């Protein structure tokens, strides 16, 4: 993560921007002033989030302080057609990340609220405290941000749960086939492919911290190729959606 030359604080991360946009959208008609409790609460939450987003960074007094939070809300105003139509302007400059999060969530305040609530639950429950980094550079980070993406991946890579899912499906069907394309590793590779298949977590990312345990029914069996496709793009498709893309249906 690069740092700002002006105050040496890390640039705003997507996860932080989602929380800020949620506050903006909930007070779109009349933003709270810089000294309001809502601004102070978000400042506190962002400083708490820094422990997991920027683990090697020791926050300075200026890091996500109330002035910085209020300024970020003003950055969103410049993107808001409701505000601009009235002949008003927010701050003239803003980061690319502001625009990306605005395009993703501004038209769907409910989704933004659910994602923000999931992030806050994860902080409160320490669900993000020991999450491993995902090493795959080709994996597309979900629109919901880094922390929920890491939560998703950690759950679908649980060896114990994946083993249980494979055993359950084998007992029920006698085969392990991809639920998207029906590829069967054993059929294609013989004994070498027997028992092999990957698992994909199917629950929406915004529900992950709330549902403290992952159940077998939350997993889908998928081949490596389809699993890649489920984790690709600005909006991740679900299993049924990917199957329709594959079959043209």
From TrEMBL:
Domain of life: Bacteria
Signal peptide start-end: none
Keywords noted in UniProt: Endonuclease, Hydrolase, Nuclease
Organism: Cupriavidus pinatubonensis (strain JMP 134 / LMG 1197) (Cupriavidus necator (strain JMP 134))
Gene Ontology terms for molecular function: endonuclease activity; nucleic acid binding; zinc ion binding
Name of this chain's protein: HNH endonuclease
Record flagged with keyword Transcription regulation: no
Keyword Thylakoid: no
Segments traversing the membrane: none
All residue ranges annotated as the HNH domain in the record: 178-232
């Amino acid at each position: 993560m690069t740092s700002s030359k002006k105050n040496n604080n890390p640039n705003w991360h997507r996860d932080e921007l989602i929380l800020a946009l949620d506050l903006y959208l909930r007070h779109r008609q009349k933003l709270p002033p810089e000294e309001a409790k809502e601004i102070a609460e978000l400042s506190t939450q962002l400083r708490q989030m820094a422990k997991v987003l920027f683990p090697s960074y020791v926050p300075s007094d200026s890091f996500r302080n109330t002035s910085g939070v209020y300024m970020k809300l003003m950055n969103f105003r410049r993107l808001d057609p409701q505000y601009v139509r009235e002949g008003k302007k927010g701050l003239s400059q803003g980061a690319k990340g502001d625009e990306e999060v605005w395009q993703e969530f501004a038209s769907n305040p409910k989704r933004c609220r659910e994602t923000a609530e999931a992030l806050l639950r994860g902080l409160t429950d320490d669900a993000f405290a020991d999450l491993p980094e995902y090493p795959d550079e080709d994996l597309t980070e979900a629109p919901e941000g880094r922390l929920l993406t890491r939560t998703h991946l950690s759950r679908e890579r649980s060896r114990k749960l994946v083993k249980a899912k494979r055993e359950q499906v084998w007992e029920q069907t006698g085969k392990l086939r991809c639920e998207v394309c029906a590829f069967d590793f054993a059929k294609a590779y013989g004994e070498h492919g027997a028992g092999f298949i990957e698992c994909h977590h199917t629950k929406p990312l915004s529900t992950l911290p709330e549902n403290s345990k992952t159940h077998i029914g939350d997993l889908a069996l998928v081949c490596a190729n389809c699993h890649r496709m489920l984790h690709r793009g600005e909006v991740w498709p679900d299993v049924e959606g990917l199957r329709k893309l594959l079959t043209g249906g």
